[in-house]
Amino acid sequence: MVPCATGCSLTKIKVETDTIVAKRDVALSMVEFIRARYDAVCGGLLVAYQDTAGLYRVDRLGAQ
Hints:
mainly beta, 3-stranded antiparallel sheet, 62% strand
C-alpha cells in the first residue's frame, strides 16, 4: 500500500481550544513515510519520505 496515493488530509489544530484552524487535502507519491515535523517559523509541515522512484525527499506542506 502506498501512503497518500489516493490523498491524505493535512489538518492544523489549535490545541488550546481544540479547534481546526486549517485543512488541506494532499496527494504524495510515496512508498515509505519517514518523518514529519512542524516548522513554526514558516508555518508548515515538513515531511520526509521515499518516493515511488526510490528517491528520498523532504517537502514543506502548508495548511493554508
